[in-house]
Amino acid sequence: MEVHALAWVGLGVVVVALIALDVYGHVRKAHVPSMKEAAVWTLGYMFLAFIFGLGIWGVYGGTYAIQFYAGWMTEWSLSLDNLFVFVIIMASFRVPPDLQQKALLSGIIIALLLRLVFILVGAALVERFSWVFLIFGAWLLWTAWSQAREGLQSEVEADPEYRENRFVRTIRRVLPVTDGYVGDRFVLRHGGRTSFTPLFLVVFALGSADLMFAFDSIPAVFGLTHEPFLVFACNAFALLGLRQLYFLIDGLLGKLVYLHYGLAVILGFIGVKLVLHALRENTLPFLNGGQGLDQVPEIGIPASLGVIVVTLATTVIASLLRSRAQERGSAS
After folding, report:
1. What is the pLDDT of residues 20-60, one digit of tens each?
2. 10 Å Cβ neighbour count for 34?
3. CA gyration radius for the chain?
4. Alpha carbons 274 and 258: distance in angstroms, whole number
5. Residue 223 CB partners (closer than 8 Å, separation 6+)
6. What would the 3-class secondary structure string for 64-130 be?
7. Label partner for 191 (CA 20 to 30 A): which of 10, 20, 102, 284?
8. Could you give phi then psi for residue 244, rounded to 5 degrees?
9. Which segment, 202-206, 241-245, 254-258, 289-293, is predicted with the most confidence on average?
């Protein structure tokens, strides 16, 4: 896939335009989005991703379009896990509802920039060292196990607690922070002294938390496509729609009781796919004399897309059925 520099520029323009639309159309005037507004914009971002995939199909062919759709759906589903943490962060910092949009969008912008660096570095490693896929695959398999274990723990722990990561704790120790929120400001200048508001810490908590998720999601998307352009596009469309999705399913997240298991299946499947690919492209001298193992099966992208779609659908349906059964049981 030969991606011209203009394609990168075009994608950048789209991302900046969507951010500007969010800033001037929604965030500039602090308010709590209605369910209708959140639903319309969530569907709008999903439609944009669909149109982008059609554009990829028209320019580069169906194979790369399917890779994009599979990668975007994987990134989007993993973003649901982000929302659990985002909800906890917002509650922990007691962010006023009308400031949550600005905090989310600012954190997403930081996350996009950090993920772009991560993707470019990862692409360079993948292109030069095929054995990196073994590391990615092993990491995803471990993450899949962690997701399944977290699903078991969440059944007995009804009230998860957010703990500031080391990065945020360091910021709090180094920088002066105001006692409370000052409107929607990040920085306050008063009496010749500059202080940062808790909203500033919230943004960095969201951005740094998302970076932790990127260590799982980006290798997963690399397992579906090796093209950095498509990997970044998947991340961009998934993250940019995350703000609207946050307000849409804030109350629904608690009903997705099997989400961790569904994510574990997806991550485990892609982890196995990466390990198999690494074995087929093997260059390690101590394994088969540095030659690829041709007898190892290769899992195609259509099959990968099918597994992702079926897993997501099964997870959502099973979760809603169980939640409904629990509600009926508690009512009776």
Report:
1. 888 776 666 666 777 787 788 888 889 999 999 999 999 99
2. 10
3. 21
4. 25
5. 133, 136, 137, 140, 270, 271, 273, 274, 277
6. HHHHHHHHHHHHHHHHHHHHHHHHHHHHHCCCCHHHHHHHHHHHHHHHHHHHHHHHHHHHHHHHHCC
7. 102
8. -65, -40
9. 202-206
In the structure encoding, which two tokens stand for residue 2, read together? 């030969």
Pinpoint the alpha helices (H) of 223-251: 228-240, 242-248
Beta-bridged to residue 188, according to DSSP, are: 195
The one-letter amino acid at 181: Y
Q: Are 311 and 270 in contact (CB under 8 A)?
A: no
Q: What residue spans define the domains of the chain?
A: 5-331
Cβ within 8 Å of residue 221, ≥6 positions away:
71, 74, 75, 230, 231, 234, 235
284 token code pair = 């390690």
Closest CA to 22 of 50, 49, 2, 41: 41
Helix axis angle, 132-154 to 198-222, nearest 10°: 120
- The SS3 assignment for 195 reads strand
